Amino acid sequence: MATIPNERLREALQVEKNPTWMPVVALALRDQSGRLLLQKRPPHKHHGGLWELPGGKVESDEFPRLALTREIAEELAITIDPASLTPGLLADEGEFGATVLFVYDCSRWSGEIRPLEHQEWGWFTFAEAGELPLAPMDRDLIKRMAQ
Ligand SMILES: Nc1nc2c([nH]c(=O)n2[C@H]2C[C@H](O)[C@@H](COP(=O)(O)OP(=O)(O)OP(=O)(O)O)O2)c(=O)[nH]1
């Protein structure tokens, strides 16, 4: 891969004004039999129609665990305890790995799951998940989770 001097890269990307990379947090939520919760991305979004772990972008004024707590409440109507999250796997995509997905495991949550963004969702074994059209980072993550 060609090396780009940092100064030129900073100029090209105007890093003082724009962040150079995007942190995304996602939740690996399991049911009692160990199946994983996955949801389908809305058709109008990036990777629309592909299956993913619930979660979303970390805003610039947020801490990752709090961003994940917020996203999960917005998407699934359940409450997770930020203190009960355990950092898990990591994936990235883009030429320079500009989107970084941080996956957390969760041991405590409350409420009843309701898809507030009208998204399809379900519990899947790793074998079942492997048959779904997954977002690219999730394909890699689920393979690694299954090992
Ligand atoms: N939440 C989530 N995003 C993923 C996964 N895999 C994957 O490639 N992505 C990508 C898709 C998007 O480019 C980005 C997350 O964006 P998002 O659209 O979910 O974020 P958001 O909920 O904050 O949405 P918005 O600002 O677009 O409304 O990460 C995943 O498992 N979970």
TrEMBL record:
<keyword id="KW-0227">DNA damage</keyword>
<dbReference type="Pfam" id="PF00293">
    <property type="entry name" value="NUDIX"/>
</dbReference>
<dbReference type="GO" id="GO:0044716">
    <property type="term" value="F:8-oxo-GDP phosphatase activity"/>
</dbReference>
<dbReference type="GO" id="GO:0035539">
    <property type="term" value="F:8-oxo-7,8-dihydrodeoxyguanosine triphosphate pyrophosphatase activity"/>
</dbReference>
<protein>
    <recommendedName>
        <fullName>8-oxo-dGTP diphosphatase</fullName>
        <ecNumber>3.6.1.55</ecNumber>
    </recommendedName>
</protein>
<dbReference type="GO" id="GO:0046872">
    <property type="term" value="F:metal ion binding"/>
</dbReference>
<dbReference type="InterPro" id="IPR000086">
    <property type="entry name" value="NUDIX_hydrolase_dom"/>
</dbReference>
<keyword id="KW-0234">DNA repair</keyword>
<dbReference type="InterPro" id="IPR047127">
    <property type="entry name" value="MutT-like"/>
</dbReference>
<dbReference type="GO" id="GO:0006281">
    <property type="term" value="P:DNA repair"/>
</dbReference>
<keyword id="KW-0235">DNA replication</keyword>
<keyword id="KW-0378">Hydrolase</keyword>
<comment type="similarity">
    <text>Belongs to the Nudix hydrolase family.</text>
</comment>
<dbReference type="GO" id="GO:0044715">
    <property type="term" value="F:8-oxo-dGDP phosphatase activity"/>
</dbReference>
<keyword id="KW-0515">Mutator protein</keyword>
<dbReference type="InterPro" id="IPR015797">
    <property type="entry name" value="NUDIX_hydrolase-like_dom_sf"/>
</dbReference>
<keyword id="KW-0460">Magnesium</keyword>
<keyword id="KW-0479">Metal-binding</keyword>
<dbReference type="GO" id="GO:0008413">
    <property type="term" value="F:8-oxo-7,8-dihydroguanosine triphosphate pyrophosphatase activity"/>
</dbReference>
<dbReference type="GO" id="GO:0006260">
    <property type="term" value="P:DNA replication"/>
</dbReference>
<feature type="domain" description="Nudix hydrolase">
    <location>
        <begin position="20"/>
        <end position="147"/>
    </location>
</feature>
